[in-house]
């Protein structure tokens, strides 16, 4: 029911929405919870385990009950808290965990079966028979469990991530946060004020307090207006700081766009902020705790602070006849506010015998307690035990207060533990828990408005001093109520029925006691046994009461019992927001070669090679299988000429007097002796003696080299070179930089490669001036480039490099020329076949567990110098002839299919893991030879040439008799390469 | 067959104007990395100043102006953007032609800072990142270089091969910022 | 987490590559013997408390850094250029 004239809503802006298919009207400024309460809707959901009818409990992000699903189809979004959801025109919200309907939920049968479903039920029941777990229990439990459901489709909403930096981060904008921001802002500090709510002001908006003679919300608005005018202050609403991390880093989630159709195109639903702050002030306030009594979970039973919030902020009476039940003076104000607004208050019930109640029209029962309630789908009646006997009172709303818990959560994110304060019966943050963060206001146990204002201002003044700033003089602290906080602990009203602690996970007082009886005495054990505090509200409403009861049941004090660990996020964060920006092609950068467009135009399927995209093959008309294209492209290179983009290989330019020495130190072989204008193959080890990478390095000048790495290891090799230079060889005067991106480089391979180049290059090449492994400058139409006579295919081949801007143009010309000569472009599949035919290794072979010895390159370890990995490579076990060593394999008879990853066995033995003698690393069909070939590692491989063994791929069920042969299948003498 | 034709890294993906921010590819001229040899930083700086009018920049800074700018580019390295580097500098420093290695984009407009706050993990607000300041840092997942050219204008460099990703990432960030109005 | 690169200033941890213990700076002589090499390449302490580590400012200036960090409190006590440390040894 709306109260005329109250609330911070805009009654000129009606908004139409649906809940459970029924249309309602609310106002701008309403949450779904306030708008529903205004319409008298109390039943908003069903509980998780027992499917108990539930209404809204709170007015904030701690809400455990009123979770709804919004949106339809792919945009369906479950578990949205009705207390945080600002309504909008067209909002379509449904209750969760209820079938067939919210009012008649079939699973409510669980509530009848409750004596069997208490703490530990799952552990005890679903133990045996063993086989039932997977087939029956787990699917059953999974179906019954969980609240809202995802659509299963890709959500159309987009979220984003962003960074923010500030001197001072103020978390929370109640009186403490506003006072802190104002003090720091006036002093010129760079302030970021972050508020979870849609409105600044915190409890000032929910209470009837005055500050400096102004109504609380007016003072907040006036203060925010002053802050807004400061250039050095940034204000963020709808932003929840969810985590505190190392070195002043905080995570925050901002709800940006209104839901649904109102969001502008390209707009995001949420922003995940990483905030870096030199200092932070936590002014997160406090959360009121319920009292446990029998059936304290009926719709209509709410926290007292929520009842005041709905009344004062939203102008909504949560009931027509309200009772107030508490153990502290703060609760009394609920009755005062309600009566002042003309709402009937049925009774004020205080568990304390000695109280000084305010002037009220309603009866006041001191030393009394609510012992039970009635009303299945909504509260109808409460039972009260007074000093003079029991009494039933007809009410449709009960405002309850067990006191306040400071919101300490963020201070525990870096292993901090809160400190118990008996005078307020609550935990407060332990100072220093988060370096650079101080706490102020209610989250620190200051419960009067005046104390909050003072604490906020003082915290800011201390921060200013740290930052080397001065608080502006003469600023007067605002004046507000300073009433004392009087409380006598009341965790649970004695009784035999079910009294709820954790509303979201349906944990009762009995469950906690049962845990203690079964010796789950540690608070962490109790938590896991009962699931207390393990729901999405993380026990914000219930943890302190639960551990107080555990302390009582185990005969310990609360400080000894301790708390469970509060972990980030403070408030639930959707995975989509955590993963914002990393969906689809935002997941990783795409590196595209200059020939990419042309490859796509030619229909080439692209494969990923690290971040690069490379063409698999270039299909031609009539080809229906990739092998046809691949075999044709291999034929180009073996018989005519093929062109392949090899720009993705890492290229590192090294210069300086120390360049040769650095290369000698990182490669097993020697580069200081390499002649200018020549290229040499090099092998690089890790310090543990295993192969790191390989490639060719060209000497362009006396003190100038260009190193080539594999595509996969380019980054790692660059990092390695930096390390070797900076950490191990700082005396070497050498400078290096990546030139991978500067050059577009193409392999031109095949017997007609020279013919192709001559006529294209400004100066023709011949075998005398450009022998195998020569390198140097060349030009094409006056554009300078580089030419390397190197070969990965085993054919007479070159690599032509031009500045990348000309890459696309050169690729087209090379391919056109090749096609005119009976050749053409070839892709990764053909490249792989060609190199396997030639026995050239890639990272399939140098996979991190192979040594130079294993791949037959032991002789490449120069005896004349030290190099990275040399000492460790000489270890006995790494040069043991019994190691698995590189061999070629070909099927006996020629018909069998070979695959990579197959294991090798002696013939006649059972082919098991234990009898495996090695494995294949690369296998292809060789169109040149007309059968499959493979490279692999075989124990004593080189000693077993010509022997027949078995090859078995357990995964694919492929089995073959294979002959062990040298790994070079085509042109073992290298005549074609040199020719 | 004709001459080889040059293609710019961002051809086909830029320019972009979304909201009050523009992303435009720029032709910086020659790009030469200058890495002074051991003990030669001063000599290299003197040679550079003699030839091109600006000394080598200090870490995180630039020298020169539009058309001939030296951008600090990492440990012991600067990137000369504009003229072909005078060979006299080569006596004191390793010179490497990088003219084709980088995609260069200016991002400008009142909300350019907000767009970059979505991509760059460095405080780029004018109070801490002034005109002429530069940073080697990340642009979302990419290594790159960001320089403030003016109150509302930045120069961004990423690897040429990642130009399309840069355009994509900028577009998403620009859309998100623009949608906030 | 943030590290202050001596060249670039305070930066987000995602700009850095983590290597491991700074013992990697103390490369033994080739003939130092199996034990010394085994220690250098393979054996690492796992201290709860202060330790020296190597980080690489990969997405920044490219410098290798020696970071003194407390594994229990996550405090960073110092960041030095690895090259300066290596040069000082010679
Ligand atoms: Zn750095």
UniProtKB/TrEMBL annotation, chain A:
Transmembrane segments: none annotated. Pfam families: FAD_oxidored (PF12831), Fer2_4 (PF13510), GCV_T (PF01571), GCV_T_C (PF08669), SO_alpha_A3 (PF17806). The keyword Oxidoreductase applies. Residues 497-581 form the SoxA A3 domain. The keyword DNA repair does not apply. Residues 599-865 form the GCVT N-terminal domain. Keywords: Oxidoreductase. Residues 885-971 form the Aminomethyltransferase C-terminal domain. Coiled coil: none annotated. Belongs to the GcvT family. This is Sarcosine oxidase subunit alpha family protein. It comes from Roseobacter sinensis. The lineage of its organism: Bacteria, Pseudomonadati, Pseudomonadota, Alphaproteobacteria, Rhodobacterales.
UniProtKB/TrEMBL annotation, chain B:
InterPro entries: TrmE/GcvT-like. Gene3D superfamilies: Heterotetrameric sarcosine oxidase, Probable tRNA modification gtpase trme, domain 1. This is Sarcosine oxidase subunit gamma. The lineage of its organism: Bacteria, Pseudomonadati, Pseudomonadota, Alphaproteobacteria, Rhodobacterales.
TrEMBL record, chain C:
InterPro entries: SoxD (IPR006279), SoxD_sf (IPR038561). It holds the Pfam family SoxD. It comes from the Bacteria. This is Sarcosine oxidase subunit delta. It comes from Roseobacter sinensis. The lineage of its organism: Bacteria, Pseudomonadati, Pseudomonadota, Alphaproteobacteria, Rhodobacterales.
């Amino acid at each position: 029911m709306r109260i005329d004239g109250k609330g911070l809503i805009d009654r000129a802006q009606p908004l139409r929405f649906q809940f459970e298919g029924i249309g309602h009207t609310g106002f701008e400024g309403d949450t779904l919870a306030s708008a529903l309460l205004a319409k008298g809707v109390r039943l908003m959901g069903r509980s998780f385990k027992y499917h108990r009818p539930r209404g809204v409990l709170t007015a904030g992000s701690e809400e455990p009950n009123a979770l709804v699903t919004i949106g339809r189809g792919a945009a369906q979004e479950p578990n949205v808290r009705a207390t945080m959801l600002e309504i909008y025109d067209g909002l379509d919200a449904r209750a969760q965990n209820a079938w067939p309907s919210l009012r008649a939920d079939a699973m409510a049968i669980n509530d009848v079966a409750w004596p069997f479903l208490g703490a530990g039920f799952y552990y005890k029941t679903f133990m045996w028979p063993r086989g039932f777990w997977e087939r029956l229990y787990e699917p059953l439990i999974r179906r019954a469990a969980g609240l809202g459901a995802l659509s299963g489709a890709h959500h159309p909403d987009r979220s984003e991530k962003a960074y923010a930096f500030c001197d001072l981060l103020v978390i929370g904008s109640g009186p403490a946060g506003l006072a802190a921001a104002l003090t720091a802002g006036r002093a010129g500090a760079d302030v970021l004020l972050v508020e979870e709510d849609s409105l600044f002001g915190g409890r000032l908006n929910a209470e009837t307090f005055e500050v400096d003679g102004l109504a609380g919300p007016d003072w907040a608005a006036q203060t925010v207006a002053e802050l807004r005018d400061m250039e050095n202050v940034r204000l963020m609403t709808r932003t929840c700081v969810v985590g505190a991390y190392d070195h002043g880093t905080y995570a925050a989630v901002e709800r940006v766009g209104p839901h649904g159709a109102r969001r502008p195109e390209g707009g995001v639903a949420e922003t995940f902020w990483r905030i870096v702050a030199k200092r932070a002030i936590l002014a997160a306030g406090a959360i009121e705790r319920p009292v446990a009594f029998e059936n304290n979970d009926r719709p209509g039973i709410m926290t007292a602070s929520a009842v005041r919030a709905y009344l004062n902020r939203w102008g909504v009476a949560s009931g027509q006849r309200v009772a107030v039940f508490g153990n502290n003076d703060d609760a009394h104000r609920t009755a005062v506010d309600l009566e002042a607004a003309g709402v009937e208050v049925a009774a004020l019930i205080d568990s304390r015998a000695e109280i000084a109640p305010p002037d009220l029209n309603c009866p006041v029962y001191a030393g009394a307690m609510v012992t039970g309630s009635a009303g299945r789908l909504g509260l109808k009646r409460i039972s009260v035990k007074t000093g003079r006997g029991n009494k039933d009172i007809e009410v449709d709303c009960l405002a309850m207060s067990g006191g306040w818990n400071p919101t300490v959560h963020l201070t525990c994110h870096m292993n901090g533990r809160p400190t118990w304060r008996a005078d307020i019966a609550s935990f407060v943050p332990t100072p220093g828990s988060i370096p650079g963060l101080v706490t102020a206001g209610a989250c620190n146990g200051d419960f009067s408005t005046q104390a909050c204002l003072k604490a906020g201002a003082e915290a800011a003044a201390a921060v200013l001093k740290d930052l080397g700033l001065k608080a502006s003089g003469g600023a007067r602290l605002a004046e507000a109520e300073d009433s004392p906080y009087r409380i006598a602990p009341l965790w649970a009203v004695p009784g035999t029925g079910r009294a709820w602690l954790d509303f979201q996970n349906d944990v009762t007082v009995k469950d906690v006691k049962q845990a203690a009886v079964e010796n789950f005495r540690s608070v962490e054990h109790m938590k896991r046994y009962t699931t207390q505090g393990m729901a999405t509200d993380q026990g914000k409403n219930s943890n302190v009461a639960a551990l107080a009861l555990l302390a009582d049941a185990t005969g310990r004090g609360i400080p000894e019992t301790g708390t469970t660990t509060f972990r980030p996020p403070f408030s639930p964060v959707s995975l989509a927001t955590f993963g914002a920006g990393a969906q689809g092609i935002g997941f990783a950068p795409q590196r595209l070669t200059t020939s990419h467009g042309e490859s796509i135009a030619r229909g080439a399927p692209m494969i990923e090679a690290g971040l690069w995209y490379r063409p698999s093959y270039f299909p031609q008309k009539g080809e229906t299988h990739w092998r046809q294209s691949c075999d044709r492209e291999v034929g180009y290179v073996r018989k005519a000429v093929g062109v392949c983009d090899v720009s993705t290989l890492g290229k590192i330019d090294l210069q300086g007097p120390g360049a040769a020495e650095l290369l000698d130190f990182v490669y097993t072989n020697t580069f200081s002796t390499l002649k200018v204008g020549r290229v040499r193959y090099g092998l690089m080890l890790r310090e543990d003696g295993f192969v790191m990478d390989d490639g060719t390095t060209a000497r362009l000048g006396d003190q100038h080299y260009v190193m080539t790495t594999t595509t996969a290891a380019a980054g790692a090799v660059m990092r390695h070179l930096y390390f070797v230079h900076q950490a191990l060889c700082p005396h070497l005067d050498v400078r290096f930089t990546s030139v991978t991106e500067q050059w577009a480089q193409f392999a031109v391979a095949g017997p007609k490669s020279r013919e192709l180049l001559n006529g294209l290059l400004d100066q023709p090449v011949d075998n005398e001036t450009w022998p195998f492994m020569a390198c140097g400058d060349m030009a094409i139409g006056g554009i300078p480039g580089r030419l390397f006579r190197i070969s990965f295919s085993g054919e007479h081949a070159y690599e032509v490099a031009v500045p990348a801007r000309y890459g696309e143009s050169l690729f087209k010309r090379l391919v056109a020329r090749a096609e005119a000569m009976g050749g053409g472009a070839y892709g990764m599949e053909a490249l792989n076949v060609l190199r396997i035919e030639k026995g050239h290794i890639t990272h399939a072979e140098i996979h991190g567990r192979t040594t130079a010895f294993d791949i037959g390159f032991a002789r490449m370890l120069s005896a004349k110098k030290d190099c990275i990995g040399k000492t460790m490579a000489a270890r006995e076990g790494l040069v043991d002839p019994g190691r698995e060593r590189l061999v070629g394999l070909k099927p006996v008879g020629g018909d069998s299919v070979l695959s990579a990853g197959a294991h090798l066995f002696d013939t006649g033995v059972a082919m098991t893991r234990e009898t495996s003698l090695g494995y294949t690393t690369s296998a292809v069909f060789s169109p040149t030879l007309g059968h499959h070939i493979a490279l692999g590692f075989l124990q004593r491989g080189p000693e077993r040439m010509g022997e027949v063994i078995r090859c078995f791929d357990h995964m694919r069920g492929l089995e073959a008799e294979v002959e062990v042969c040298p790994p070079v299948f085509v042109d073992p003498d290298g005549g074609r390469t040199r020719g | 067959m004709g001459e080889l034709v040059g293609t710019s890294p961002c051809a086909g993906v830029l320019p972009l104007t979304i909201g009050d921010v523009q992303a435009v590819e720029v032709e910086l001229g020659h790009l030469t990395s200058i890495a002074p040899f051991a003990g030669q930083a001063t000599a290299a700086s003197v040679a550079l100043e003699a030839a091109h009018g600006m000394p080598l920049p200090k870490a995180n800074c630039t020298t020169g102006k539009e058309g001939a700018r030296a951008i600090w580019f990492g440990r012991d390295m600067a990137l000369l953007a504009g003229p072909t580097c005078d060979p006299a500098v080569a006596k004191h420093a390793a010179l490497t032609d990088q003219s084709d290695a980088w995609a260069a984009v200016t991002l400008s407009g009142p909300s350019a800072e907000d767009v970059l706050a979505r991509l760059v993990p460095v405080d780029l607000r004018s109070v801490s990142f002034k005109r002429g300041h530069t940073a080697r840092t990340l642009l979302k997942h990419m290594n790159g270089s960001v320089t403030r050219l003016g109150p509302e204008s930045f120069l961004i460099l990423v690897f040429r091969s990642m130009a399309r990703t840069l355009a994509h990432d900028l577009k998403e960030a620009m859309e998100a910022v623009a949608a906030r109005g | 987490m943030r590290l202050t690169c001596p060249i670039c200033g305070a930066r987000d941890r995602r700009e850095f590559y983590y290597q491991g213990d700074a013992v990697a700076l103390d490369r033994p002589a080739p003939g130092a013997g199996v034990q010394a090499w085994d220690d250098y390449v393979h054996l690492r302490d796992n201290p709860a408390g202060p330790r020296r580590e190597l980080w690489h400012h990969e997405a920044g200036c490219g410098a290798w850094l020696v970071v003194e960090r407390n594994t229990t409190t996550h405090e960073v006590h110092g960041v030095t250029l690895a090259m300066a440390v290596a040069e000082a040894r010679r």
